């Protein structure tokens, strides 16, 4: 397809795969799921992206082609400091003011994200 999806999370691999299962999302839609146990560093440290970045580089995908979708200031800081493009997802209002005050592009949900990605 046009997009490849991966997950970099502070949660454990087990928790994420269970959440995907609960939402009826096939984990095989993601080329990689990186849980907290897969790296010694964690967000907001940008080095959290090194393992998945190496996988993408092997596939011929450049940093400039990556869009990181995150819901927190730690997501924003770690991804942009690593050199990735970022869009916020404000599925609750917890970090909405952060996205607005920092002039960060954001969507409210995955349906809006689909519209943005296909624009």
Verbal overview:
The protein is an alpha/beta fold. The protein has a single domain, classed as Rossmann fold (3-Layer(aba) Sandwich). Helix content is 36%, strand content 17%. It is built from 5 helices and 5 strands; from the N terminus they run E-H-E-H-E-H-E-H-E-H. The protein has helices spanning 13-22, 50-58, 73-82, 96-101, 110-117; strands at 5-8, 30-34, 67-70, 85-89, 106-107. The strands form 2 sheets. A 3-stranded parallel sheet has the order 3-4-5. Strand 1 (5-8), helix 1 (13-22) and strand 2 form a beta-alpha-beta unit. It is globular, with a radius of gyration of 14 Å. It starts with a strand and ends with a helix. 13% of the residues are buried. InterPro entries: HAD-like_sf (IPR036412), HAD-SF_hydro_IA (IPR006439), HAD_2 (IPR041492), HAD_sf (IPR023214). This is Phosphatase.
Topology:
Elements: E1 5-8, H1 13-22, E2 30-34, H2 50-58, E3 67-70, H3 73-82, E4 85-89, H4 96-101, E5 106-107, H5 110-117
Classify the beta-strand content into a percent band: 15-25%
Task: Classify the secondary structure makeup into a structural class.
Answer: alpha/beta
| Total of helices | 5
Major sheet: arrangement of strands: 3-4-5
In angstroms, what separates the terminal alpha carbons? Answer: 16 Å
Instruction: Compute the number of strand runs.
Output: 5
Q: Looking at this structure, what is the CATH superfamily? A: HAD superfamily/HAD-like
Question: Average pLDDT value?
Answer: 93
Overall CATH architecture: 3-Layer(aba) Sandwich
InterPro entries: HAD-like_sf, HAD-SF_hydro_IA, HAD_2, HAD_sf
Protein name: Phosphatase
